[in-house]
From TrEMBL:
<feature type="compositionally biased region" description="Acidic residues">
    <location>
        <begin position="35"/>
        <end position="53"/>
    </location>
</feature>
<feature type="region of interest" description="Disordered">
    <location>
        <begin position="35"/>
        <end position="54"/>
    </location>
</feature>
<dbReference type="InterPro" id="IPR036361">
    <property type="entry name" value="SAP_dom_sf"/>
</dbReference>
<protein>
    <recommendedName>
        <fullName>HeH/LEM domain-containing protein</fullName>
    </recommendedName>
</protein>
Length: 113
């Protein structure tokens, strides 16, 4: 199963191609713009790039918390983290939430099985 590109990845590709776009466009519109601006050969190359990448890790909340670094989003035990599927997580942030090195002092998320 190939991975669908993130909004950030699509915007990066469009920028590299020199295509101007509105930052407020949704993912589907950005993807359509990218497809319209890549030749079939480039599109195949792009598709191969995304299919070779591994699926993003999924996390589940193991302790209720308010995410102070995500507009104070409240997460309840067993919620999926992050709530927004297009959210970009830094490895440092994931480690902070998976360890006790946060304001609550205990792990808040774990990798989903």
């Amino acid at each position: 199963m190939s991975k669908s590109p993130t909004v950030k990845e699509i915007k990066k590709e469009l920028t590299e191609l020199g295509v101007e776009f509105d930052d407020k466009l949704n993912k589907d519109d950005l993807l359509e713009l990218l497809e319209d601006n890549t030749s079939e050969e480039d599109g195949e190359e792009l598709s191969e790039t995304y299919s070779e990448q591994e699926e993003p890790k999924q996390y589940v909340v193991i302790h209720d918390f308010k995410d102070l670094k995500d507009n104070d989003t409240i997460y309840i035990k067993d919620d999926i983290y992050p709530r927004r599927a297009d959210a970009v997580l830094s490895e440092g942030r994931v480690q902070e939430l998976m360890s006790g090195e946060n304001k609550i002092g205990k792990p808040l998320i774990k990798e989903q099985d």
